[in-house]
Design goal:
By secondary structure, the protein is of the alpha/beta class. The chain has helices at about 20-30, 45-50, 60-65, 70-75, 95-100, 110-125, 170-175, 245-255, 255-260, 305-325, 330-355, 365-380, 380-395, and strands at about 5-10, 15, 35-40, 55, 80, 80-85, 90-95, 105, 125-130, 130-135, 145-150, 155-160, 160-165, 180-195, 205-210, 215-220, 225-230, 265-280, 285, 290, 295. Bound molecules: flavin-adenine dinucleotide (FAD) and P-hydroxybenzoic acid (PHB).
Length: about 400
């Protein structure tokens, strides 16, 4: 191997992480003529193989429109005006459109990311894959940089700002000294086993099911692609579950009339996600901004992970645009406060909805009665439904 050579490029914003937050930020900045370099640890194929979120709030749809990346979403996404909640054989609907005037859109995170990559490639914006040993330098001073290696060569990006969009396991959050950040965490004593199958969805809207055997969710990606989840033990691994075992368990957890019409088939993906609530504060350290899962995690029950990543991107994009267009740094100064105010509200909603729908190992008979009482309150009380609907479709930015 030849001598290790250091290559250096200069940009306005170095973006660590080529997931949905990093790519959306890059494209929004690009529309305002602000340059960025995106650094991604994995290959594009790997990023696109991760099956994650499926429900988009109006706010995220608006940002994708602004970034010029919403054509396929509008052509292929499904508008959902409400959702179903079941407990035992009882089922009721919360009507988002009636309570808020706003629907949500069902369109997979994989497709959002694919559209953002296509836009990035079409605009010629730089993106480096398979970067290793990423290190942040000088974020607390005026001239930050990101050092990394690629194919055995050391490289450096000098920039004005760094956006840490590298997910929960990334390096950006760790770059903030321990005595400068607080972390708040709740780990749930169960996970979600999810499968994707090329079968028609059991229902045309999502079903969130609280059953005595544990939570279940019936979701979808399109007319012939279903996404189902069941609450599982943290000690389970996907190999412990045959497809037949999964379908049988799902049928036991949803109302009998739904189970009777469930179309089953082979799974094309099967994975387990642990559930966690996590917040890092502040979300800015000097010229480093944390965005999305790098700063916070929610349990997926309220479909808020990707959507909260998008609200961070909204605040950051707005702050950086204002700085470059007017020289004003007030948006940069208030980024962490603005983003965290909304983050804590989505944390509350995700925690509340998770607590309402799951079986916990230490739940008493009293706790179980409280869940049923709360579900019956939600079923019969329009004000409670409106509050849920407002949170589900997304609080304003
Ligand atoms: P990520 O999507 O994690 O992207 C971060 C990117 O940074 C990745 O591509 C990663 O490879 C890259 N990276 C990491 N470290 C480095 C580094 N050192 N250098 C360079 N690049 C790096 N949300 C929902 O709403 N509904 C769901 O059903 C749902 N399911 C989920 C299932 C799982 C297993 C996980 C992990 C998350 C799920 N989420 C779900 C949450 C949602 O997918 C995330 O909130 C969303 O992906 C956040 O986007 P992000 O861009 O901030 O982070
Ligand atoms: C999904 O379709 O993957 C999905 C939908 C709603 C959720 C979580 C996940 O709350």
């Amino acid at each position: 191997m030849g001598p290790v050579e250091e290559c250096c490029v200069k940009t306005q914003v170095a973006i660590i992480g080529g997931g949905p937050s990093g790519l959306l930020l890059a494209q929004l900045l690009q529309t305002r003529g602000i340059d960025s370099v995106v650094l991604e640890r994995k290959t594009k194929a790997h990023v696109l193989s991760r099956i994650r979120a499926g429900v988009l709030e109006r706010g995220l749809v608006g940002l994708l429109e602004e970034a010029g990346c919403a054509d396929r979403l509008h052509a292929e996404g499904f508008t959902h005006d409400g959702t179903l909640l079941s407990y035992g054989d009882e089922m009721f609907r919360v009507d988002f459109a009636a309570h808020t005037g706003t629907p949500v859109v069902v369109y997979g995170q994989t497709e959002v990311t694919r559209d953002l990559y296509a836009a990035r490639e079409a605009s010629g914006g730089p993106i480096a894959f398979e970067v290793e040993d990423v290190r942040i330098e000088g974020a607390d001073g005026p001239t930050p940089s990101v050092i990394y290696s690629q194919g055995g060569q050391m490289r450096r990006v000098d920039c004005d700002f760094i956006a840490g969009c590298d997910g929960f396991h990334g390096v950006s959050r760790q770059a903030i000294p321990l005595d400068q950040r607080q972390e708040y965490e709740k780990v749930y004593p169960f996970g979600w086993l999810g499968i994707l199958s090329e079968t028609p969805p059991v229902n045309d809207e999502l079903i969130y099911a609280n059953s005595e055997r544990g939570f279940a969710l019936c979701s979808m990606r399109n007319a012939n692609l279903s996404r189902y989840y069941i609450q599982c033990s943290l000690s389970d691994s996907p190999e412990d579950w045959t497809d037949e075992g999964f379908w049988e368990e799902l049928k036991r957890r949803i109302p009998a009339d739904q189970a009777a019409k469930l179309v089953t088939g082979p799974s094309i993906e099967k994975s387990i996600a642990p559930l966690r609530s996590f917040v890092c504060a502040p979300m800015r350290w000097g010229r480093l901004f944390l965005c999305g899962d790098a700063a916070h995690i929610v349990p997926p029950t309220g479909a808020k992970g990707l959507n909260t990543a998008a609200s961070d991107v909204h605040y950051l994009h707005r702050a950086l645009t204002r700085f470059y267009e007017t020289g004003e740094s007030d948006g940069i100064e208030s980024y962490s406060t603005d983003a965290l105010a909304r983050v804590w509200k989505t944390q509350r909603f995700s925690w509340w909805f998770s607590s309402l729908m799951h079986r916990y190992p230490d739940q008493s008979a009293f706790d179980l009665h409280m869940q049923v009482a709360e579900l019956e309150h939600l079923r019969s009380n329009q004000a409670a439904q409106k509050a849920m609907a407002e949170n589900y479709v997304g609080l304003p930015y």
